[in-house]
């Protein structure tokens, strides 16, 4: 964890997250939080961060981490999650932090920038420009101020979900870029309903009726199931995915489907990233799925295998079926360490 000027107090979301992670997390240890020097913070990052470490930074820490990554290269860290980076050229930038300068080019590791719509030290468009310059994904956090304890955010659950989704993406590999958004979906929206119905038709055309486990509209509307849609900037539907709650700390991936024109574009990986992140945010230790054995399902099986899913036996209410493959992803094993 790399806090900003003055450090992060006990009520700050970084401190909350650090306590949750226990020995898997640590905090940057520069000489001073109140009279900071970028060179000293670089030295601390050199001492504490390695190629297998994921960095979570806030405010001034974002500038330090961006510049350090640009200087140290792609083996410096796994990736970085940068929250509320300040505008160094803004009138409210603290004078005691003038030695800090942000990176001015694309960063060598995966990065997500999260910015509030009402941040006191940077405008939303300035933050978006920083993210574009760094080659980072950009997430608008809404009206949450400077994203600190003074804003009453506590654990900042929405931020935790974004962080978990990003951590999941590091295992999923390249996916659709930030122009694709994933959001909660209503099964009865016309385009969503049509895609679900198309999915059901294809499942019945591919597998015997007794081996079809795709969920119908009414089943997807159940309170224990969350459905998401991926859409482009023009609001066109690109795909759907659902997460079903199971007992004993597990979830099941359901109804993964992309429209024909969006196949092989990274949309499926983007949806899977989101579902895995949500499963992690819920505290699940396993994510399970059922898919088919036929050639039609081979691309899906390859995507799941690349993600880290492995074959297991039937789970929940499933029974052995020669037309079914059951797979599991252990979530606890894939959480990168935090500095």
CATH class of the largest domain reads Alpha Beta
Mean pLDDT: 88
Number of spatially distinct domains: 2
Uncertain segments: 333-339
Describe the structure.
By secondary structure, the chain is of the alpha/beta class. The chain has two domains: about 140 residues, Rossmann fold, CATH 3.40.50; about 150 residues, Aminopeptidase. The chain is built from nine helices and eleven strands. A seven-stranded mixed beta sheet has the order 5-6-7-8-9-11-10, with helices on both faces. A four-stranded parallel beta sheet has the order 1-2-3-4, sandwiched between helices. The radius of gyration is 21 Å and the shape is elongated. It starts with 12 loop residues before the first helix and ends in a 9-residue tail after the last strand. The relative contact order is 0.12.
Produce a short descriptive summary:
The chain is α/β, with parallel strands linked by helices and about 350 residues long. It has nine helices and eleven strands.
Annotate the secondary structure layout:
Layout: H1 13-21, H2 38-48, E1 54-58, H3 60-72, E2 79-83, E3 111-115, H4 124-134, E4 137-140, H5 157-172, E5 181-184, H6 190-206, H7 217-220, E6 225-231, E7 237-246, E8 250-258, H8 267-281, E9 286-292, H9 298-307, E10 310-312, E11 324-330
Parallel strand pairs: 1-2, 2-3, 3-4, 8-9
Antiparallel strand pairs: 5-6, 6-7, 7-8, 9-11, 10-11
Helix pairs in contact: 5-8
């Amino acid at each position: 964890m790399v806090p900003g000027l003055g450090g992060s107090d006990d009520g700050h979301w970084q401190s909350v997250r650090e306590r949750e992670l226990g020995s898997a997390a640590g905090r940057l240890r520069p000489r001073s939080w109140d009279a900071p020097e970028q060179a000293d913070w670089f030295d601390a990052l050199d001492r504490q961060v390695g190629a297998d470490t994921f960095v979570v930074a806030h405010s001034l820490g974002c500038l330090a981490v961006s510049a350090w990554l640009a200087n140290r290269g792609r083996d410096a860290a796994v990736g970085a999650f940068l929250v509320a980076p300040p505008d160094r050229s803004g009138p409210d930038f603290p004078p005691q932090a003038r030695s800090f300068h942000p990176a001015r080019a694309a960063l060598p590791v995966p990065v997500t920038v999260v910015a509030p719509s009402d941040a006191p030290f940077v405008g939303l468009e300035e933050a978006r420009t920083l993210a574009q310059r760094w080659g980072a994904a950009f997430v608008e956090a809404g009206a949450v101020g400077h994203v600190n304890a003074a804003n009453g955010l506590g654990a900042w659950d929405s931020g935790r979900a974004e962080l978990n989704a990003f951590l999941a993406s590091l295992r999923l590999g390249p996916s659709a870029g930030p122009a694709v958004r994933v959001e909660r979906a209503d099964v009865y929206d016309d385009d969503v309903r049509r895609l679900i119905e198309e999915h059901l038709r294809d499942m019945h055309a591919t597998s015997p009726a007794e081996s079809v486990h795709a969920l119908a509209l009414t089943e997807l509307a159940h309170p224990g199931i969350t459905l998401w849609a991926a859409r482009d900037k023009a609001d066109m539907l690109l795909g759907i995915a659902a997460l079903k709650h199971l007992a004993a700390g597990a979830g099941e991936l359901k109804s993964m489907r992309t429209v024909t024109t969006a196949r092989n574009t990274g949309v499926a990986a983007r949806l899977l990233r989101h579902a895995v992140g949500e499963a992690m945010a819920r505290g699940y230790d396993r994510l399970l799925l059922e898919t088919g054995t036929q050639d039609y399902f081979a691309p899906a099986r390859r995507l799941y295998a690349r993600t880290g899913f492995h074959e297991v036996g039937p789970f929940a209410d499933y029974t052995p079926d020669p037309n079914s493959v059951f797979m599991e992803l252990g979530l606890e094993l894939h959480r990168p360490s935090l500095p």
